[in-house]
TrEMBL record:
The lineage of its organism: Bacteria, Bacillati, Bacillota, Bacilli, Lactobacillales. Keywords: Metal-binding. Signal peptide: none annotated. It comes from Jeotgalibaca dankookensis. This is VOC domain-containing protein. InterPro entries: Fosfomycin_Res_Enzymes (IPR051332), Glyas_Bleomycin-R_OHBP_Dase (IPR029068), Glyas_Fos-R_dOase_dom (IPR004360), VOC_core (IPR037523), YwkD-like_dom (IPR037478).
Length: 125
């Protein structure tokens, strides 16, 4: 029924900071950027493999729940060929990563870090 994930939408509290994080730190290419005057909102589409991240800004969005086990989308995970190499690159850009762990089911390396709003992001081999 489904072939792929088309996009994941993220709402940023500070568009400029999040745009810098996703485009400069994570090096995601920009597909398009639009300002929607009627909503006072930016929408930035970023390429991730065959999928996209839609980065939105809205005036005064509510804060994200601080409970990591709350119902709903838990985190966003990126596939990388080498977790250790990616962690080194991220940490070189000032991103704090958790210690690398081994997935008990796949025996592959993974770890987590956060975007500027505290959204959990995972990298996994």
């Amino acid at each position: 029924m489904f072939d792929d994930i088309h996009h994941v939408a993220i709402i940023a509290s500070n568009y400029k900071v999040s745009k810098h994080f996703y485009t400069e730190i994570l090096e995601l290419p920009i597909i398009r950027e639009n300002y929607r005057a009627e909503r006072k909102s930016y929408k930035l589409d970023l390429q991730v493999g065959n999928s996209e991240i839609e980065l939105f800004s809205f005036p005064n969005p509510p804060a994200r729940s601080t409970t990591p086990e709350a119902v709903g989308l838990r985190h966003l995970c990126f596939y990388v060929p080498d977790v250790f190499e990616t962690v080194q690159k991220l940490e070189g850009k000032g991103v704090i990563c958790e210690p690398i762990r081994i997935d008990a089911y796949t025996n592959k390396k993974f770890t987590f870090f956060q975007d500027p709003d505290g959204l959990p992001l995972e990298i996994h081999e």
